[in-house]
């Protein structure tokens, strides 16, 4: 008894070959639990997605190395599976993105100005509220401008579900922000945040290249403009918070 794994009924644009980006109907055929055969791409004749049988650590390493095939695996072949709730995953990713940005702003603010230990709970709550409003506002402005620029100047791939897929790709490709969590445990100089932002920018560039099939230079220019705008708005918000 054999069954198709991750098949897309009526739409071959759901899954992609991670090497040549060609649409593929089935990633693997399952003969029995734990016994599968990976399908080959009809165009490039290579295995469509070898990450299905790879360890998660290999995928993480390839993502850090900015390999486009690793991004295709995540942005197409994982998110289009039937057991993944796209809407729920999108909003959770957006919330996580905002939370990490809020912590980044708070960490920089705490380094620049000494927070008094005698501050009341109400003062801390107001401080957090100001940071929350500023960070969410800046992120929404940058997201809107970036998504509009992508839709206006770049040609989205067939498997891209409009602005939602673009936003999710940007949030997922900002995974380097997770390293900010290490600042809760170890003391790092402020320039480490700048280095993390550089990695986020380069990762966003690869993600846009994957979902739009556009040139790397075009994607990089759009990402640099968006990140520069965010930097200016963040600098302005820091002055307001002070």
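^ structure tokens above, recovered residues below v
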């Amino acid at each position: 008894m054999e069954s198709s794994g991750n098949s897309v009924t009526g739409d071959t644009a759901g899954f992609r070959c991670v090497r040549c980006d060609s649409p593929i109907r089935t990633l693997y055929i399952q003969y029995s639990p734990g016994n599968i055969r990976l399908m080959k791409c009809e165009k490039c004749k290579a295995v469509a997605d070898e990450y299905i049988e790879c360890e998660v650590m290999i995928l993480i390493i390839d993502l850090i190395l900015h390999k486009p095939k690793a991004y295709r695996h995540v942005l197409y072949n994982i998110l289009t599976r039937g057991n993944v709730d796209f809407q729920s995953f999108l909003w959770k990713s957006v919330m996580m993105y905002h939370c990490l940005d809020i912590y980044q702003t708070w960490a920089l603010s705490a380094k620049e100005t000494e927070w008094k230990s005698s501050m009341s709970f109400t003062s801390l709550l107001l401080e957090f509220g100001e940071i929350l409003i500023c960070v969410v506002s800046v992120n929404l402005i940058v997201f809107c401008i970036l998504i509009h620029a992508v839709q206006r100047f770049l040609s989205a791939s067939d498997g891209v579900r409009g602005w939602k897929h673009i936003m999710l790709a940007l949030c997922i490709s900002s995974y380097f922000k997770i390293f900010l969590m290490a600042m809760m445990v170890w003391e790092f100089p402020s320039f480490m945040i700048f280095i993390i932002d550089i990695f986020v920018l380069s990762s966003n560039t690869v993600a846009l290249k994957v979902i739009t099939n556009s040139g790397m230079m075009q994607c990089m220019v759009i990402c640099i403009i968006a990140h520069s705008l965010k930097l200016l708005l963040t600098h302005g918000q820091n002055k307001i918070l002070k």
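The longest strand covers residues 28-32.
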